Amino acid sequence: MDSEEEYIYESDSGNESSENDGIGLEFDSDEGVGGAGGAIGKYKDLDEYPFEVLSTEEITKHMIDCIKEVNNVVNIPITTTRILLNHFRWDKEKLMERFYDGDQESLFHEAHVISPYKTPKQQTKDVSKSTGMEECDICLLKMPSAMMTGIECGHRFCTSCWTDYLTTKIMDEGMGQTISCAAHGCVILVDDQTVMKLLKDSKVKLKYQHLITKSFVECNRLLRWCPYPDCSYIVKVQYPDARPVICRCRNVFCFSCGENWHDPVKCNLLRRWIKKCDDDSETSNWIAANTKECPKCKVTIEKDGGCNHMVCKSLSCKADFCWVCLGPWEPHGSSWYSCNRYDEFEAKQARDAQEKSRASLQRYLFYCNRYMNHMQSLKFEHKLYASVKEKMEEMQQHNMSWIEVQFLKKAVDILCECRQTLMYTYVFAYYLRKNNQSVIFEDNQRDLETATETLSEYLERDITQENLADIKQKVQDKYRYCDQRRRKLLEHVHEGYDKDWWDYSDP
Amino acid sequence: MADIAVQRIKKELKEVIESDEIQRCNIFVELADDDYQDLRGKIAGPSDTPYEGGTFHLEIKIPKSYPFKPPKVKFLTRIWHPNISSATGAICLDILQDEWAASMTLRTVLLSLQALLAAAEPDDPQDEMVARQYRNNYPLFFKTAQYWTYFHAGGENSNSEFTEKVQSLKDMGVSDTRALIALSSCNWEMLQAVEEIFS
Ligand SMILES: [Zn+2]
Ligand SMILES: [Zn+2]
Ligand SMILES: [Zn+2]
Ligand SMILES: [Zn+2]
Ligand SMILES: [Zn+2]
Ligand SMILES: [Zn+2]
User: Fold this and answer.
1) CA distances from B60 to A209, A304, B29 (A)
2) Do A89 and A180 fall within a single domain?
3) Which residue range is the domain that position B159 belongs to?
4) pLDDT reported for residue A9
5) Distance from CA of A387 to the nearest CA of B (A)
6) Where do the H-state alpha helices sit in A244-319?
7) Residue A341 CA: which ligand is closest?
8) Helix (H, G, I), strand (E, B) or coil at A261
């Protein structure tokens, strides 16, 4: 995010219509709706999937527009609107519905804000009348009332303790939208204006703004950050789906799970696979030493104490669960037997797994090697593009037209597509249970793999003036064949999804 | 250590030491090193509980961002209690986790722990083995906890039957703490305890 600290207050200034127009139209036409832009063309075998790419500034605008839109209807402070919207995961309709249909007091209560219709509580703390001094419950120092402050709930602390408190929440705990009052048991949320006013360090301010944007994007089903390292663009879709989208940084990823576009394997299997690969060894799956996934939101959680009662650190989740069985914590008091039963079950599984582990490790290594191999080759993608570009220029100096040499670039495009598809076919195959259709799938896979390797050899071979015509024909024939085989393979898998052919196992 | 953390700990130490709680409730806290990060606490077992007469030592680690983060507290003295791990001394108490607030102090923590000894919450167990005994056989739980207090915390209420059983296991070459854990978790059934130790 850029400098403007005031973005949060920007919503006070009028000028709505122009901002509204800005986002929607500009990028529809510039970046094009799914399928129009560069690399996504690779995947044009897929149906149209409309999306747009936004910068963090545009997302901020979009967020402010959302707030304004609601504020045009409901007449409450902007800071309260923001908290309410966040409470409803930025679903305007849901908020409006509750605001007008339900009991407003309970709505404010639920969203952890003080009703804006109530007159603010006067702080009733023991102010020594003679000296005008108050004691801060955090630093335990007495200071002039002017140095004490608080939010609508009436709890007051000194400004420097507030600053420290907010800084810890933001920097250590990564909290943004959901920081509550510092008083014990008080759940009232600190609004963004107050936070910005109390923060001094610009680094912390920046992080806070980033967290706010982040939670806005993460709450919103129609938005996803581009997962490419250090890329800060956001993709906005019209309906969420497991479809490929392309960022302005040219990264192509699955909108649903954020991984590289992974057809033919589905998001859930891919996630299982990646987790498996990240684990050091097969057996460490069972020992899962110090981190586990939150059973509700899948965020990775580190165990930081001896207590088995875990609370998910994710802002939007906060699930309570048991470290041992990953079950919800709630029934553990009354029926902790279930947790024990799981222990036995888990122990038995661990034993069985060890027996099986040798055989399954070999199987795993087989698929993993092939998967890694294609991944490795893909990493040399730019290199290949660069060398092909060189060749193309060389050919143009030898009396070939620009049009005539385009086949080379096309060949590399297809080679990369094939490798990417192949890579994910090994994940799919790893979990696939054998049946008649899986045999056909494996034939398709073998076919595509052989053809792809041949194409790859052609492209690496020296292309000279003499054999040019000949090689051009060969390359074109081969990439057409590869492309066709790739489509065939994908179609077959998709047909299998439709007709329920695929059985999975967890080896 | 941040200034505020040190400043707070200094004030808090004074608070505990100056208050009459040392006499009244028998809580105590002192520094274990000079940089205010490592403290030792002591609480007396409340009367009319199996912990009566025992002194329980606590390890208190002060995080850098104290008081905005809770202190990390665990029992150094072994204790038989549903909300405290019999093996590690780890504590399941809300105010040491999510319910911590910066306005709480070491004094509140120690008093809360003392209250926890007086009123266990078996519905939110840290040690499931202990919690099970607490729910299924409270009299045996009471006797066991009392014996642990005698054994580890200097309590006065011994139990000749238990001592005998521990001794028989010691005669088999088992350390007495190991024997105590095995017997306690097997409801003092000798055969089961032996099986658990030697299997
Ligand atoms: Zn203060
Ligand atoms: Zn408050
Ligand atoms: Zn990107
Ligand atoms: Zn996906
Ligand atoms: Zn979670
Ligand atoms: Zn459990």
Assistant:
1) 35, 15, 9
2) no
3) 128-198
4) 38
5) 54
6) 267-278, 284-287
7) 6
8) coil
Nearest CA in chain B to A170: B68
Residues of chain A positioned with their CB less than 8 A from the CB of B103: 137-138, 157, 182-184
Q: Which of A307, A322, A325, A368 is catalytic?
A: A307
A225 and A80 inside one domain:
yes
- Rounded-to-integer distance, Cα A219 and Cα A24, Å: 20
Count: domains in chain B: 2
Could you tell me if A53 and A181 lie in one domain?
no
Confidence of residue A295 (pLDDT cuts 50, 70, 90): confident
Q: Which residues contact B18 (CB under 8 A, 6 or more apart)?
A: none
- Is B92 annotated as catalytic? yes
> Each residue of A356-376: pLDDT tens digit?
555 666 677 778 778 887 887
Domain end, chosen from B57, B91, B118, is at: B118
Same domain, yes or no, for B8 and B105?
A: yes
Q: B134 and B104, same structural domain?
A: no
Residues B89 and B19 in one domain: yes
What's the predicted TM-score (pTM) here?
A: 0.62
Distance A141 CA to ligand 2 centre (A): 19
Same domain, B94 and B15: yes
DSSP A245: E
Closest ligand, as measured to the CA of A300? 5
> Is A332–B65 a contact, with Cβ atoms under 8 angstroms apart?
no
Residue corresponding to tokens 């302005």:
A248
> How much is the pLDDT for B48?
92
Contact (Cβ atoms closer than 8 angstroms) between residue B29 and residue B43: no
Which ligand gives the minimal distance to the CA of A260? 4
Residues B104 and B14 placed together within one structural domain of the fold: yes
Q: What is the mean predicted confidence (pLDDT) over A47-59?
A: 88
Task: Encode pLDDT of A317-365 as tens digits.
Answer: 777 777 666 677 666 554 443 444 445 455 456 556 545 555 666 677 7
The single residue listed with the structure tokens 């840290």 is: B126
Select from A430, A394, A500, A155 the least CA-distant residue to A270. Answer: A430
Domain contains A128? no
Q: How far is the CA of A41 from the centre of ligand 4 (A)?
A: 18
How many CA atoms lie within 13 Å of B194's alpha carbon, on the beta-carbon side? 11
At B27, which CATH number? Answer: 3.10.110.10
The residue among B80, B100, B118 that closes a domain is B118
Residue A125 resides in a domain: no
Q: Are A210 and A1 in contact (CB under 8 A)?
A: yes
Range of the domain at A191: 133-210
- Within-domain flag for A40: yes
- Whether residues B90 and A334 touch (CB distance < 8 A) is answered with no
Question: What is the Å distance from ligand 1's center to A159 Cα?
Answer: 7
Average pLDDT over residues A61-67: 91
Q: Within this chain, do residues A51 and A183 fall inside the same structural domain, yes or no?
A: no
Classified as helix, coil or strand, A199 is coil
B106-146 per-position pLDDT tens digit: 988 998 999 999 999 888 888 888 999 999 999 999 999 99
Chain A neighbors of B61, CB-CB under 8 A: none
Please report whether residue B64 resides in a domain: yes
pLDDT at residue A158 is higher than 90: yes
Clarify whether residues A43 and A171 are in a common domain.
no
